[in-house]
């Protein structure tokens, strides 16, 4: 058993027993990491304030090879992203990139670019004054690119022909030309928004709200990762 210290983002937590919680983090070196936070649900626990979902933290934990859940020793808060948590729309839409990062990351696999992309996205959304849906879409595009799943936008995802004005969107690959089949229709506004967001790596451009953009990207990510996104259903229910 060895001690390891790392930065991390709190992805989720599940209560365990009467006083503990299993907390899942995204870390740059270990990827998705699950730790047992013993006694964290006791009154006046020193760990509890740092382990809220969304928090950017520094951890000290005990690592043992072959163990699925490691033991958390210390956690200190680096950034609580209060600007997100205090805004209903931001908090709702932040759940999508958080869930996407959790599904893309692998256990005990270096995820430096994915981690840096998620932290950069949360910092940006924390100060964001535009439409939360646009920022969530930008974060999703950046996370997909970091994981190697970014959709094709300059060439047809079906036939490979160069395209300047897409007519559809294939969940298997991205934008399609007029001659090829696609599962989704793609409006001119959606296509231009995807191209703009894809080309902006350091910060989200304020392009204004584009209806259906998050839904399109979540459907694409769900198809690529063979999963579903609970966060998108919650967004629809909360902000309908």
Give the proportion of residues in helices.
25-40%
Q: Give the overall average pLDDT.
A: 95
Task: Please summarize the sheet with the most strands.
Answer: 5 strands, mixed, barrel
Unreliable spans are none
Distance between the termini: 49 Å
Overall SS class: alpha+beta
Quantity of strands, as a count? 8
Which tags fit this structure?
three-stranded antiparallel sheet, about 240 residues, five-stranded mixed beta barrel, 7 helices
Can you tell me about this structure?
The chain has 240 residues and is α+β, with helices and mostly antiparallel strands. The protein is built from seven helices and eight strands. The chain has helices at residues 82-85, 88-104, 112-127, 132-146, 188-199, 213-225, 230-239, and strands spanning 2-16, 20-27, 31-37, 56-63, 70-79, 168-170, 174-176, 184-185. Strands 1-2-3-5-4 form a five-stranded mixed β-barrel. A three-stranded antiparallel beta sheet has the order 7-6-8, with no helix packed on it. Helix 2 runs parallel beside helix 4 (132-146). The chain is elongated and about 60 Å long. The protein starts with a strand and ends with a helix. The model has no long low-confidence stretch (mean pLDDT 95).
What is the gist of this entry?
The protein is an alpha+beta fold. It is built from seven helices and eight strands; from the N terminus they run E-E-E-E-E-H-H-H-H-E-E-E-H-H-H.
């Amino acid at each position: 058993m060895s001690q390891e210290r790392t930065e991390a983002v709190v992805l989720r937590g599940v209560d365990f027993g009467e006083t503990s919680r299993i907390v899942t983090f995204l870390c740059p070196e270990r990827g998705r990491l699950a730790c047992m936070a013993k006694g964290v649900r006791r009154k006046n626990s020193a760990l509890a304030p740092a382990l809220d979902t969304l928090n950017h933290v520094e951890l000290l934990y005990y690592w043992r090879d072959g163990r699925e859940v490691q033991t958390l020793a210390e956690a200190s808060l680096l950034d609580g992203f209060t600007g997100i948590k205090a805004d209903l729309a931001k908090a709702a839409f932040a759940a999508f990139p958080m869930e996407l990062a959790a599904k893309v990351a692998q256990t005990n696999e270096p995820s430096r670019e994915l981690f840096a992309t998620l932290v950069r996205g949360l910092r940006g959304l924390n100060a964001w004054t535009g439409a939360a849906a646009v920022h969530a879409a930008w974060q999703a595009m950046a996370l997909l690119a970091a994981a190697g799943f970014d959709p094709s936008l300059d060439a047809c995802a079906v036939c490979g022909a160069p395209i300047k004005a897409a007519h559809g969107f294939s969940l298997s690959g991205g934008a399609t030309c007029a001659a090829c089949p696609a599962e989704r229709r793609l409006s001119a506004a959606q296509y231009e928004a995807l191209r703009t967001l894809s080309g902006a790596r350091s910060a989200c451009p304020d392009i204004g709200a584009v209806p259906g953009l998050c839904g399109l990207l979540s459907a694409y990510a769900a198809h690529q990762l063979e999963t579903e996104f609970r966060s998108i259903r919650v967004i629809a229910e909360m902000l309908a």
